[in-house]
């Protein structure tokens, strides 16, 4: 485990029946570079690392807060978080940011769906502090699920803040929504996969706006993707390691004792991005953009594989 800081759970409070806030304080030193849209890796146990967006932090990096929705049928991370007791000490990695606000003058619309609101709230705070004009749309099933509604109201955004509850307002008409926004609008959206897909589709169909997004679950793939075995060369030692078709690079390297920093293991967080010195990459992540993938000099080893027979990794 690399690049982590030990932190203590200093505060735990429920924002709704399902969503709990966790405030961690650094024990030694401080975290660096908190900014709107960033996330941290929370090490909850052996092979249990989860990524959570930071919605609030101290400017000196001594503490930060994440909000986690309890998912009873999830992969176990949220349940482990909700079981944490005050005072517990754990390792925290990051922060890193794959969902940063872009420097531009285009109109901004922030959209948070459910627990995906956490990075959206931090963006709203940053934009308000900078004096920018922007709008926020908080999409939830019902008002009881709007855990961040009171926090948004405290920002005093007036008519630029919109709470949309499906039970009262019906499902959002994205065609009408996109047509009502400025043609050059920049959308920042985080939420369930169908929500992201719908906005991307409608924006493309009407040729209006640019969509920036963050997923918190890997998108479904169509059909089975065939995996083939290949060889990884460790540049520092020259060691050749065979990667079988049914294992990832990350899994094999972990089994062999390599100290690899990783988080989601789903190609979403970027924790395991590793430089590639030679070979052709089969990119399967949702972190690197098209330009970064085309450059072919780094990869997410938790999901991506090789198109060539050999990859040389800068490890």
TrEMBL record:
GO terms for molecular function: 2 iron, 2 sulfur cluster binding; metal ion binding; oxidoreductase activity. Pfam families: Fer2. Signal peptide: none annotated. Residues 228-315 form the 2Fe-2S ferredoxin-type domain. Keywords: 2Fe-2S, Flavoprotein, Iron, Iron-sulfur, Metal-binding, Oxidoreductase. Residues 2-102 form the FAD-binding FR-type domain. CDD domains: fer2, PDR_like. This is Ferredoxin/oxidoreductase FAD/NAD(P)-binding protein. It comes from Oceanimonas doudoroffii.
